[in-house]
Amino acid sequence: MAETIFSKIAAGEVAADILYEDERAIAFRDVNPQAPVHLLVIPRKAIPTLNQVTPDDASLIGHLFLVAAKVAAQEGIAETGYRTVVNCNAGAGQTVYHLHLHVLGGRPMQWPPG
């Protein structure tokens, strides 16, 4: 996999506003927020898209969602509500090819999005 800005953040080579980190994942603020609260949760393991997730990654993917819930609570949006999104490939809006979970909140989210 090609090196990405997210792999550089995971390696500590690029600064980010990190809210949470452990040996498997990192959560930080998005530099181009689409909501009042816009966080990203990434695995330290480099996985380009959701299409490359394997059965061996099941625990890691579950962990990303647990981290998302933790940082949503830290940021005060857990009770009012938040959206989690994983974009897969360019047609869905993925621009960084390192799997990442968006956590969006701080305002009412309309459905369908748009």
Automatic annotation (TrEMBL):
Domain of life, source organism: Bacteria
PROSITE patterns listed in its UniProt record: HIT_1 (PS00892), HIT_2 (PS51084)
InterPro entries cross-referenced by the UniProt entry: Histidine_triad_CS, Histidine_triad_HIT, HIT-like, HIT-like_sf
Domain HIT: 5-114
Placement of sequence motif Histidine triad motif: 98-102
Protein name: Histidine triad nucleotide-binding protein
